[in-house]
Specification:
This protein is mainly α. The chain has 6 helices and 3 strands. Strands 1-2-3 form a 3-stranded parallel β-sheet. It starts with 6 loop residues before the first helix and ends with a helix.
């Protein structure tokens, strides 16, 4: 069981209903603090890390387990690495409304 307060409340400082975060997409140009953030997500909350290019390399060099976003999407990076995360498997998880029956069914169908 995850420790309290819940990760969303801890990061955002809100009283929103808790949502268990299972996976986080980390992709940044400025790598300052990304290792510490990734380590906290993985070690404290058991979150699977997904990342791109240089961010993934930085996290791996620090000893963290990271899945490449292309592994998740089954699509390669395109256009000099600028198109990496524009995929339904990424944005579907961000945009679907939890509790909406149609959205839940679509997510289940297209896992």
């Amino acid at each position: 069981e995850m420790s309290e307060p819940h990760i969303i409340q801890e990061v955002a400082g809100t009283e929103a209903a808790p949502v268990k975060v299972r996976r986080a997409l980390l992709s940044v140009s400025d790598k300052k603090g990304i290792v510490e953030f990734g380590k906290a997500l993985q070690e404290k909350y058991g979150v699977e890390l997904v990342s791109t290019g240089g961010t993934a390399r930085t996290l791996r060099e620090a000893g963290l387990s990271v899945k490449d976003v292309s592994e998740l999407t089954a699509s390669p990076e395109m256009l000099d690495g600028r198109v990496k995360t524009l995929h339904p498997k990424v944005h579907g998880g961000i945009l679907y409304v939890r509790g909406n029956q149609e959205h839940e069914e679509a997510i289940d169908t297209h896992k």
